[in-house]
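Exercise 7.
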Amino acid sequence: ELRESEERFRTVYNTAPEGISISDINTGLLLEINEGYKKIFGFDLDEIKGKTSLEIGIWVNDQDRKKLTDDLLKFGKYTNREVNFKKKDGKIIHSIVSGRVIFINNIKYMLSVINDITELHQIAQDLKESEQRLRTTLYSIGDGVITTDESGKVYQMNPIAEQLTGWKESEAITKSMDDVFHIRNESTRNIVESPVQKVLSEGKIVGLANHTLLISKDGKEIPIADSGAPIKSEKGDILGVVLVFRDQSKERETQIIIEKSLREKEILLKEIHHRVKNNFQKIISLISLQAEMIEDQKILGIFEDLQSRLISMSLIHQLMYSSGDFDGVDIKIYIEKLVSFLITTYSTSNLIKLNMEIEEHDLDPDSVIPCGLIINEIISNSLKYAFPNNAEGEINLLFKKIGNKYNLVVSDNGIGIKGKIDFENHKSLGLRLIDMLSRQLKGKLEVDQPEKGLRFSIKFKKDS
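Solution. The predicted structure, written as tokens, is:
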């Protein structure tokens, strides 16, 4: 039975993962070590038997040895002391040591149990360093950051969050988020539900609506924007919430300045277009007065054409002034007004039918002005020359977008022009203007001369 008991003891003794040693309490000589001790330090019993732990060189700090020995002699034991040891190969290990005095046949011995926690120590060190890096990041970020536990109680706050809420981290920790983070709707002044509670209940990222105010501890109101996100474990369980928010006061101030600047710019542009329109009207009036004194019909026609061209440009500034839209002109409204003026000015017959198919598009002035002048030249020429002797006829005008290009088509079924049209050398200023303005639009000009009338087609891009 004794042998069986000893065998059981030996089995437990040698299979234990801890390093176990028995030493003479008076001399410190090592008498017995288990397999765990061998694995931890790399020694065999033959190498260390009859030697002290000091002689085999496992102590990194001799003060630790003396302290443990003194405690053992004084109290008869010591428990869970963290000590660094040196292995046979010189590698340092971290361990937890317990020791006690034992009696065998009424003789005192020292029993030591050593747990190698090097790996756990390294994991703890890595976690500590990782936490320090995260904390440094948290504390250096320019936005306010608050983290909570799974119940919505404050776990961490960075300095920006302290500054905005008026709460110190030491005061806020373990308090409910609702006690620290008060938010209201800027317009209605109603209390806004905490984003933290929404994240905890919905388990997803949420953000605040615009015009949200943070009410700090001292009652100060701060416009903020924020978002909350769940902190999840590897299994997907919610461990807490991280809330990130920023002060929008400067953004609001900048926005007010920009809006004021835009209003001033709009007023200035409106005034500019108003003055340009008025100056055009003055020039048109002067030309009209001068035209009344001209008896030569050819020269009078030149003055009337010049007046018509000025009116087509003046109309653009009038539309921009009246609409308040300075980025572009609705081409449909512009063409309809321009053609109405041309009909009133040049048409001497009620037998001419005008057909228009115009899409609504906003074009910038750099595109509208050439378009208007082209339409002015083509329509006015048709009305003046295409239908002599009050003949019946049709004028067709189409403006539409096809793909990324605009297509302007103006045609009539009048008497047309004899011979091939040479835009560069033609004696008609109107035709030369149509060619020049088409090139200004970087468009493609095509002219068809059917049996009756003329057909002009210009295709161009908006960004031309």
